[in-house]
Amino acid sequence: MSTLEPFPFEPYGESPTRASQGPAISIRWILPLLVVAPVIIGIALTGWFAYRSGRSAVEETVNQITTEVANNIQTEVIRYLEVSIVASKMLVAEVNSEVLNIQDMATLTNYLEETREVFQTTQTSENIANLFYANEAGKHATSQPDSTSFDRRERPWYKAAEKARKAIWAEVYNDKKTSELVLTRSIPIDNQAGNLEGVFGIDIKLNSLSNFLKELNVGKSGQAFILEMVDDQQSTGELIATPEDEDLFVKQSGRNNTISAKESTNKLVRETADYILDNNNGLRHPNCNSNSLSNEEINNLRNDNCEFNIDGKKHLVRVNYLGDKDINIKWLIVVTIPQQDYMGAINGIVRKALLIGVVITVLASLLALVGAMYIIRPIKKLNQAADDIKQHQFDPQTLADVRQRPDEFSILADVFDDMATVVVSREQSLADQVKQLETEKLQYRSTGDKRYSLDVALRHAKQVRSRYSQR
């Protein structure tokens, strides 16, 4: 009989199917990311919504301010011009009741002088500069001494009333004596036959309107001004009043002509006028969005709020039209305010919120890193203990620090200790069984069923041990 060699005993080692590999993504980074990412997103969304809400509130506030300022200016202009309308109605009533004889120029001159003196003593009518009259025969009367010998019938104020055959506002002109802008109210007078007898004129100084605009508070750097609507015959959007000390006329062809708002020395006035002129069909239809409106819509929508950019900065504009008021004058009241005047405070709040958010994010990141390290340390200890068990080198002191923790990891460390004891005990028991079987196999050097049974039992024991070691 041949001598049987003992089955080799395979030492318990590392499974070839479970090679040691490092983690693809570490908890050290996942945990801070999960903590910090929502914080950053929350701060960003909060800042964005705060900015949008603040911006909407600012736009609404600025629109309310521009509307209120424009309405206040409108009220002042109407009050300013109504005096001349009342005076013109008084003159017509005096003539129609034959109290005033317009054929006697000397008497008419005295009447006009006395009327002007009365107006000068009243604050609401002190801006009436002159009252005058000219008839179809070329004769004239005036409340102020006038030695000029020109034909009044050729003057614009006379021709305007002659053409309209009703009370009308003549064009604004520059008074050579005072160098002030003057507006004339022209009132035609008909004879009994219904033909034109003559025309009364009432001159109103406009410098007080500019003074009024100077005293207005239109935000931090806003502006308000008045300009004339574009007319096919004469007007190109001339300035009537501005809050700046600038000449509103220029000398051309030997006469002083009013300047267009687009020629103003004030950049804000000039740029705003450019925008309005370019977007409102030459100011014939004073509405910010008139290019997209029908004629019927334009006639029903004369006042409007709109916006435009100067050097990339948003400006809000309010336009009020006076042509459909009782005074029936084709002027535009324009109020413009840079949005930055009111957005500065909102931007400051947003910057502070973002700064606080950055600080919170940094603190959250540090806390998340500390928390990650707090969790990773016991996990590393548990991993080391598992490797020690696999290598038959487990030392219970490896998990001593973990067992002292006040959290769930201490429970897990106790479980590892118990598991290590069980594993070592089972490994020792299996090893003892294998040795016993090897011994018995060597003792029974026989063939047949006994030898086969021992081989099967030994092979089964080794398979059990191998499967257990691969877990």
Summary of the model, kept short:
The chain is an alpha+beta fold and 471 residues long. It is 50% helix and 17% strand. InterPro entries: dCache_1, HAMP_dom, Sensor-like_sf, TCS_sensor_his_kinase.
Write a structural description.
- The chain has 471 residues and is an alpha+beta fold.
- It has a domain at 394-469.
- The chain is 50% helix and 17% strand.
- It is built from ten helices and 13 strands.
- The protein has helices spanning 27-96, 105-120, 156-164, 207-214, 267-279, 295-300, 340-390, 400-403, 408-443, 449-469; strands at 128-135, 140-142, 168-169, 173-175, 180-190, 196-205, 223-228, 239-241, 249-252, 255-258, 304-310, 313-321, 331-338.
- The strands form three sheets. Strands 1, 2, 3, 4, 5 and 6 form a six-stranded antiparallel β-sheet that branches.
- A hairpin with a 5-residue loop joins strand 5 and strand 6 (196-205).
- Helix 1 packs antiparallel against helix 7 (340-390), helix 7 packs parallel to helix 9 (408-443) and helix 9 (408-443) runs antiparallel to helix 10.
- The longest helix has 70 residues, at 27-96.
- The radius of gyration is 50 Å and the shape is rod-shaped.
- The two termini are 41 Å apart.
- Residues 1-20, 281-287 and 290-301 have low confidence and may be disordered.
Number of helices: 10
User: How much of the polypeptide forms β-strand, as a percent range?
Assistant: 15-25%
Gyration radius, rounded: 50 Å
What structural class do the secondary elements suggest?
A: alpha+beta
Can you give the mean pLDDT?
77
What would the principal axes of the Cα set say about the shape?
rod-shaped
SSE order in H/E notation?
HHEEHEEEEHEEEEHHEEEHHHH
What's the β-strand tally? 13
- Helix percent reads 40-55%
Main β sheet profile = 6 strands, antiparallel
Sequence stretches where pLDDT stays below 50 over 5 or more residues = 1-20, 281-287, 290-301
